[in-house]
Design brief:
- The protein is built from four helices and no strands.
- With about 170 residues, it is mainly α.
- The chain has one domain.
- The N and C termini lie far apart (about 95 Å).
């Protein structure tokens, strides 16, 4: 096949995939559709910041015990073992919370890409975008449940001895 024919075929197939004459409203409509998921992405990023901060506090507390273990007497070690077990439970739940919310953020990114692809390529990807959005909501909901569990563990495994402050 001559090189001119190959080039013409490649150009025709590219034009079939992506229209070169987009209507003026196509780009603005795609951006409007993507705005809500972008705000959701911002909210999830804020949640991830809070969750990562809590995980950091748990890890710092566990490292404290690790560094001071030799200095503790038998009674303090028994108490510390209990707290380290609770910290490990909190660490695992924090990790799941972060993982699930990160998956939700990635799914939201795919929703945004799908919405743009739907507008630019004149395909029907609305069901796919809707499915991705529902999956993202399930993931963020599960992440929030894990976050709630971590907060519960933090508040119910810590005791404050008020007599020490008198």
């Amino acid at each position: 096949m001559p090189a001119v024919a190959v080039a013409a075929t490649a150009t025709a197939s590219r034009e079939a995939l992506m229209p070169t004459d987009l209507a003026p409203g196509t780009v603005s409509h795609a951006i409007q559709l993507a705005i809500a998921p972008v705000f959701l992405l911002t909210g999830i990023a804020a949640l991830l910041g809070v969750m990562a901060n809590r995980l950091s506090r748990v890890i710092d507390r566990a490292r404290y015990f690790e560094q001071h273990w030799a200095d503790l007497d038998a009674s303090a070690r028994a108490t510390s073992r209990r707290e380290v077990r609770n910290l490990e439970r909190r660490r695992r739940v924090c990790s799941w919370s972060i993982n699930l919310c990160t998956v939700a953020a990635l799914l939201i990114c795919l929703v945004i890409v799908t919405l743009f692809a739907d507008a630019f390529f004149a395909t029907s990807l609305k069901w796919y975008a809707g499915s991705l959005f529902v999956a993202a909501m399930v993931a963020v909901s599960a992440g929030l449940v894990c976050f709630l569990r971590e907060v519960y563990l933090a508040t119910h495994t810590t005791t404050i001895d008020f007599s020490r402050f008198e």
